[in-house]
Amino acid sequence: MLKDDENQHLINEVPEHKADQEVLLDSAPTRKIVCAVVPMFMGYAALVSFQSDIKDRLGIHSESSDESYAFGEAVSMLFLAALVFRLLHNVFLSWLSPRQRVFFGCALMCLATGTVAVVYYALRWTSVWLAYVIYVCGGIAIGTFEANLVSSITPLGHQTKKWAVIGMPLGYNGVSIGGFFLFALAPSNAYLQGGVFGATSLLCVVAACIFAIAVPSDVSTTIAQGTEFNGVSSLAELTASLREWREWIAPIAPNLVSLFTDMFACILASTVALYVFKVGNVPLVPGRCATMPYNVLQGVFNICGFLGDFTARTVAYSPPSWWPTSLMTPNGNTLRCLVFTCTGLALCLCRVAILSPIGMLLIMFGNGLMYATTTRRIDTVVPWKYNIIAVSLWLFTGDCGSYIASTLTTPISNAVGRVASCDK
């Protein structure tokens, strides 16, 4: 088995044939890549999971006020900006290489989370309109970062990508789970809330440094010279790639549907739960006395989501002998993901607190299963010159689902209704 520092001789040889490409993809893992991924998804989680805390910080307490709807629109800009940049980073950032776009994403996420910490918590500004800027920056950051990181590390092999894929739920849930439990210990502690955003901002700088070490510039540059690995770099090239859709869209078409559905359910379930159960002591079952503090319930909710996501990503990317082979096929993966997703969403929206964590576990198991099998499938069956555009389009469809769900959060939350508090 190759060691991390022995991958270089494979990287420096451009894989001209399918067999050579498969040898390269089976090279030893660069595990440190996980540390470059975690902080970015911590920032993404902070902006999504703690939106109600930011909203409270701005003094917005009525769900039906104009300010509440304006803030909801600002949050939806996170998903809209990510959606636009999933594909058009190839055009708007054509002057940067995929590796440089990763650094660009880190810088914007650092700016977004740092602005929340400094302006909203340290300086105590209450401008709703600044939230639009913050969430747009966060959306551009994650939309640019994810596709380019996934493609930039393709020459380092399947096992390196496995560690990057695992880093996504680790970062997201590290903040969403840890944050809610911290806030449960000190509810409404502005210093603690601002500290989470500030620490996340600093860690994004660390992420950029680790990426620079883990993925040297010659990794993507050398591969790009022989395989057009840098993808499209103009609107004309993007259009040309779309005309050749049979080579890279057709093989992943079921996965596009799967991600759209799953991300719609994931965002809708997680954001509606923030508002439907936002009372001091949440009744676990309507009409019963058993309760759980809101922040603890959200922590349990996110733990279940993490367990489903992490388990599926781990076993699907490196399936053990007992793992059903049907879950590794595009159609089998899509159908099962839809079953997990729809069942989980129904449980999350039924206003029964004790069922919502189970629903999130099912949704995120489908998410992790689909994510790991799709990234591996793109590396295996899609020609490398279409790697970035294939990953970008796939993530773009997911962001379409996320954006639609985010725009429906406030009206659906109002339609479902907040549960009755059991505060003494």
UniProtKB/TrEMBL annotation:
SUPFAM superfamilies: MFS general substrate transporter (SSF103473). This is Transmembrane protein, putative. The chain crosses the membrane at residues 33-50, 70-89, 101-123, 129-151, 163-185, 191-215, 256-277, 338-365, 386-405. The keyword Transport does not apply. Keywords: Membrane, Transmembrane, Transmembrane helix. The keyword Transmembrane helix applies. InterPro entries: MFS_trans_sf (IPR036259).
